[in-house]
Amino acid sequence: MNPEVNPAWVRFGVEVKKLRSKAGLTQVQIHSRTGISASMLSAIENATRAPKRNHAELLDKALSTHGALVRLWLDINDSVNVPDWWRNIGVMERNAVEIREYQMTFVPGLIQTDAYIRTAMRQARRWDSADVIERDVEARTSRLDKLREDVFLWFVVDEYAFTRVVGDEQIMRAQLSRVLDLIAQGRIQVQVITQPRPLHPGMSGPLRVLDFQDRSPVALVEHLVGEEVIDSPQTVRQCRSLFGALQAEALSLSDSARMLEKLREDYG
What we know:
Layout: H1 10-23, H2 27-34, H3 38-45, H4 53-63, H5 68-81, H6 84-95, E1 96-103, H7 114-124, H8 130-141, E2 152-158, H9 160-163, H10 169-184, E3 189-193, E4 207-212, E5 218-223, E6 226-230, H11 233-249, H12 253-266
Parallel strand pairs: 1-2, 2-3
Antiparallel strand pairs: 1-4, 4-5, 5-6
Helix pairs in contact: 2-3, 4-5, 5-6, 7-8, 10-12
């Protein structure tokens, strides 16, 4: 019986075979450069085996394709493993050079822990099975590691997102530790808008602004079941101005970090 073709990976297999042929290399020669067996490479090219990210990385190096196969692998992997409404947004996140985000009631999704995400999803999506929840937890927790290494991440968050208890105090302490660790590593910038606070520019809801090297910026506005992508230049400029106004309302970076450290201590 012939192995069954996996339709999701046909495009990847075709691209690998095309690039290998263009480089004038046999499957055996690729094996000597990557350690990927000729039989495995044949299965990848014929889409009868799903490649792993490590395969894409090794093939990129062997074929001198400068990350093209990893990017293709990520795009296809998204379409297989994440919900429909996340697919295009996940691609945009990975290609963004700057992401600015404001959140009112929850810790931003890119920096949530798995326990925090799981608890929040179980409360909000009681109709979904445990398997569906776990799939989406895995998809969300992997988002940060899929971003560009040089991406600039700036978050403005209402204090309430850190003081409302999602699950229990242990989950919240671990969540604050993750945020503080990412700050200490220089991966993210976080400013907190303290309570009590009069009405401020962000009361209309969460938003994100994404900038890219090779295309116009977009804004993302959250709704009940996902995010709306906005590419109108005028509206994106308005969202960028709104984010700047929120930064002005928030504590400085250093004061925000000290506040988060105090909140972590309060959780025991």
